[in-house]
Write a structure and sequence with these properties.
Layout: H1 11-21, E1 26-30, E2 33-36, H2 37-53, E3 61-64, H3 71-81, E4 85-88, H4 95-105, E5 109-112, H5 117-121, E6 127-130, E7 154-159, E8 169-173, H6 174-188, E9 195-198, H7 205-215, E10 220-223, H8 239-245, E11 250-254, H9 255-268, E12 277-281, H10 287-297, E13 302-307, E14 317-320, E15 334-339, E16 343-348, E17 361-367, H11 378-384, E18 385-387, E19 395-405, E20 411-416, H12 429-447, E21 452-463, E22 466-475, H13 484-494, E23 503-506, H14 534-539, H15 558-583, H16 598-621, H17 623-627, H18 633-648, H19 650-659, H20 665-691
Parallel strand pairs: 1-10, 3-4, 3-5, 5-6, 9-10, 9-11, 11-12, 12-13, 22-23
Antiparallel strand pairs: 1-2, 7-8, 13-14, 14-15, 15-20, 16-17, 17-19, 18-19, 19-20, 21-22
Length: 698
């Protein structure tokens, strides 16, 4: 056994310390199988020697692809003890994902079981070692010399969820994990008496976070026999009984599972006795949901909303709802709180500098948890990990998420930039921010509908170059107003037409990725507008793309919009023509015009009135169409008003000109500056709008 001072700053060094402190304490428990700290450490030592003999070099990489049980933790620690880094791989993952990860990681060894050998051997050229067919026999004394490892050495490679493309490997050093562990220990109050539940799948960073929290503390890690992350058919009803039987004190769930747990506890009246800490993360979790679960579990349990990325070593911020003032509108707000110790979080404006409090910007993370970068991805690293003079380390991670720092110092999560088509970049942060804020507002309003249990509002691209904001709702069965048409009309009414989604599509459940996050690529496309009449919605007709949907007035119901627009245009035209003589007496008098030109001048006067009528109609119905073009909110509003002025100002302008004497210079000058100059400026605004670049396509 190597002394602590000879092996400073490594994850396995902390576990070794716990093994010396309490070798008989239970380290890992899964079903009826247990490993004490002494057994875990000794077996990991023996396996490390075997792996080195099989060709795992110091500084190398080993993919660990084992099922649920105690052996996976022996393998993970053995890789670290051999001076290498582990790549966690779920052996039951789809073939395409396995091939991508193993080809990209290019591990020296793949550690697995015989039942997975065939699949893993077919996915790459790495040597496969089946641990259930490998005797853990240590080499003769002195043959295996434990390599030195330090804080800057690579500990593992976390592959991201791939929600914005192919999964990429984040290079996590020992110091990153130790910084994260120190933050967890302080905020969570971890101790050797804790029993920490492991529910995540091996491939996700939360899996590593769970065992690091437990084994570096000397606590007991309890592994669920069922996989709540991947097995969506797993009986969540067994969880409270398991928690009680295993005396669980700390556990972490993803948002999807937390929502299922809340519904279960509400229906059964059960609780989670003994659990002092429950953390929820991996996706946007609304404040009203956090409050509801906190009330169900009582004040003994701390319910935290945690936020982080694999590239910043799992968790960066947390929010404790206990004692927090919960104002009206909690269904539209997600609070992710304050940074963990050792972490710094910023909200950056378009100039890539920290934005003032209350201003929405891109969330950036810095501190000891910030990883080395991406494996084989130098170009991506330069775009996500950037130099920052305002940070003590001079380096931050751009998350692609939008947030705002409130006056009380609490960080609010606004939305994921991927909710709109295209990546977030400094050149389009203003445009994307306005679109994400509109989607977030619509999502909050949709969630507040009594017939909606879960909702999402995202941008989709039904045809190349055409973007639509669409709502998706998981509704209460047989509830009133739960059809697509009614929900779409509800949103249009509540939002007053401002950035209302083009349609709402009821779905039985929101599609999820393997990580439990919303799978935007799997969302059904809305029905074509001509199929969205109220009668069709009430009939329950299934539309192209797999959903039932309806378009709001002024957005998707083109026939209704056309009728309203035509009616207002005609009415305003007739009204303008009728009141011309009252506002501008004699302006349309044709007595001094030769009879051959009466028709043309009369047509001009009607055209001026018709342009005014069209301007009034555009003022009433045109804003949603302008907002849907994807430009910034400020430019969109200026363009909306400019088009109205370009249409409506000809009627009063020309009538005044005809009544003004050619030598009345004061009045002529006033009209030039009231009408002509604004017309020129309006034309410039419209041209700027047309030439400006909307959000880049994904």
């Amino acid at each position: 056994m190597v002394a602590d001072e000879e092996r400073p700053g490594t994850v396995h060094g902390l576990v070794e310390r716990q093994a010396r402190r309490a070798p008989q304490a239970v380290a890992v428990r899964c079903g009826g199988a247990e490993l004490t700290y002494g057994e875990l450490d000794a077996r990991a030592d023996r396996l490390a020697a075997v792996l080195a003999r099989r060709g795992l070099p110091p500084g190398g990489r080993a993919a660990v692809a084992l099922g649920r049980g105690t052996e996976v933790y022996v393998a993970l620690l053995a890789v670290l003890k051999a001076g290498a880094a582990f790549v966690p791989v779920e052996p039951t993952a789809p073939d395409a994902l396995l091939r991508h990860v193993l080809a990209d990681a290019a591990p020296d060894l793949v550690l697995t079981e015989q039942r997975h050998r065939a699949r893993l051997a077919d996915t790459g050229g790495s040597r496969v070692v089946c641990l259930d067919h490998t005797a853990e026999t240590a080499p003769p004394e002195g043959e295996f010399e434990r390599p030195e490892a330090g804080p800057d050495d690579l500990a593992c490679v976390f592959y991201t969820s791939g929600s914005t493309g192919l999964p990429t490997g984040a290079l996590v050093e020992h110091r990153n994990l130790l910084t994260a562990y120190a933050g967890w220990r302080e905020v969570y109050g971890l101790s050797a008496e804790d029993r920490i539940l492991q529910t995540a799948s091996l491939e996700f960073d939360v899996f590593t976070a769970d065992w690091v929290r437990a084994l570096c503390t000397g606590a007991t890690l309890v592994v669920t026999p069922f996989n709540l992350t991947l097995d969506r058919t797993a009986d969540l009803g067994a969880l409270p009984a398991l928690v009680a039987e295993e005396r669980i004190t700390v556990m972490e769930l993803n948002v999807r599972t937390a929502r299922r747990l809340t519904a279960l506890l509400e229906a059964s009246g059960a609780g989670l006795p003994g659990v002092r800490l429950l953390t929820v993360g991996a996706e946007k979790w609304y404040l009203d949901e956090q409050v509801a679960l906190q009330r169900l579990l009582g004040d003994f349990t701390r319910v935290l909303n945690v936020y982080g990325l694999a590239e910043a070593t799992v968790d960066s911020t947390y929010f404790d709802v206990r004692g927090a003032a919960v104002a009206e509108g909690a269904e539209q707000v997600s609070l992710i709180g304050r940074p963990f110790p050792g972490t710094r979080v910023y909200v950056l404006g378009p100039d890539s500098a920290p934005a003032p409090a209350g201003r929405v910007g891109e969330i950036a993370i810095a501190g000891g948890g910030l990883t080395r970068g991406y494996l084989n991805r130098s170009a991506e690293t330069s775009r996500r990990f950037i130099r920052a003079s305002f940070d003590p380390d001079g380096r931050v991670l751009l998350t692609g998420d939008l947030g705002l720092l409130r006056a009380d110092g609490v960080l609010e999560f606004v939305g994921r930039a991927a909710a709109v088509v295209g990546p977030l970049g400094s050149d389009r942060v203003t445009t994307v921010t306005s679109r994400v804020k509109a989607a977030v507002r619509a999502e909050g309003v949709l969630r507040a509908h009594p017939a909606v249990r879960e909702a999402a509002v995202v941008e989709v691209e039904p045809t190349p170059g055409k973007r639509l904001t669409v709502g998706y709702a998981v509704t209460v069965p047989q509830a009133d107003g739960a059809d697509g048409w009614s929900l779409t009309q509800y949103l249009a009414e509540q939002l007053k037409g401002f950035s209302a989604p083009a349609a709402v599509v009821p779905v039985p459940e929101l599609p999820r990725t393997r990580a439990g996050k919303l799978d935007r690529a799997a969302l059904p496309l809305p029905a074509p507008p001509q199929h969205t009449a109220p009668r069709a919605a009430k009939a329950g007709g299934t539309r192209k793309g797999g959903g039932k949907a309806g378009g709001p007035a002024g957005v998707s119901d083109k026939d209704g919009l056309g009728c309203y627009t035509l009616f207002v245009t005609v009415a305003a035209t007739i009204l303008a023509r009728w009141i011309t003589d009252h506002f501008y007496p004699g302006s349309t008098d044709l007595s001094g015009v030769p009879s051959d030109y009466h028709f043309w001048f009369g047509l001009l006067y009607w055209a001026e009135s018709a342009a005014f009528g069209a301007g009034v109609a555009f003022l009433l119905f045109g804003l949603p169409a302008v907002l849907r073009q994807g430009r910034s909110l400020r430019l969109s509003l200026l363009t909306y008003l400019s088009v109205f002025w370009l249409l409506a100002s000809w009627w009063p302008q020309d009538n005044l000109y005809r009544l003004t004497a050619a030598t009345d210079w004061p009045r002529e000058t006033t009209m030039v500056y009231v009408f002509n100059i604004p017309l020129m400026l309006a034309a410039v605004v419209v041209v700027t709008f047309l030439l400006s670049r909307p959000g880049a396509k994904k």
